[in-house]
Amino acid sequence: MKAVAIKEHSVAALADIKEQTLRPNYVKIKIVALAVNPTDLHHTAGVGYVGGILGCDLSGIVEEVGEECNSHVRKRDVVYGVCHGVNLNSIKDGAFAEYALVRDGHIAKIPKDLTFENTAMLGVGITTIS
To answer: What are the residue boundaries of the Alcohol dehydrogenase-like N-terminal domain, all occurrences included (predicted)?
Structure first.
């Protein structure tokens, strides 16, 4: 799949990467819209890991739900959420890709009167203030 990953210190680029295997407590989301967050710029500027996928804010369509998820989401639900792109535990967990893996509980259904574009930037913002 296509993803924006850290190519080298201070350089991000489009890359072809292997699609991740769904982990038991994660939800696989087909990305429809995303937002650039200041943390993405910090990761690119040097605190991220080479090969890591950037991005934390996203919205999209649920493709698959892990077997240990207790979430209220199901396949084909439209959702927004947050993942920790370029994190030390799994550098491939970023949102700037065709698909993202998001930990159960870090997503919410998009209300009927909002769009993918309206909600893509809510993930980090809502988790920061809550």
So the answer is: 24-112
